[in-house]
Every structure is written in structure tokens, then in C-alpha cells.
Design a protein that fits this description.
mainly alpha, about 0% strand, extended
């Protein structure tokens, strides 16, 4: 897991900024579906859905 760096006073508590690289074609598809100004919310919701789905999978 990536180590948290010191937070600036404008950062939200209980959150960490992460940098991620997207392939251009994937980024264009996400932005088209998510809508203007909704990229972060859309990506977070997609990640949450994946985490929920994976946590229901049988281990083994």
C-alpha cells in the first residue's frame, strides 16, 4: 500500500490523493459517459462497485 504523505491544510480528512495514469481512449470513454465535471465521482463509484463485487466472491 502506498504511504500517505503529509496533508495540506486544504485537504479533506480521511482521504488521500492518488495519481493514476489512464490510456487516452479509456479516459475519453469515461469522460463521455460521466459528463463534464463528474470524472472523480464516476471513477470512485466504479471502484466502489468493483470492491463490493470482489468482496462477495468466494475466496480460493
Amino acid at each position: 500500500m502506498q504511504e500517505k504523505t503529509s496533508k495540506h491544510k486544504f485537504d479533506r480528512s480521511n482521504s488521500t490523493m492518488k495519481n493514476i495514469r489512464f490510456e487516452d481512449d479509456l479516459l475519453e470513454k469515461i469522460e463521455k459517459i460521466a459528463g463534464k465535471g463528474q470524472f472523480s465521482a464516476w471513477v470512485k463509484q466504479a471502484c466502489l462497485q468493483r470492491v463490493e463485487r470482489e468482496s462477495k466472491r468466494p475466496k480460493g
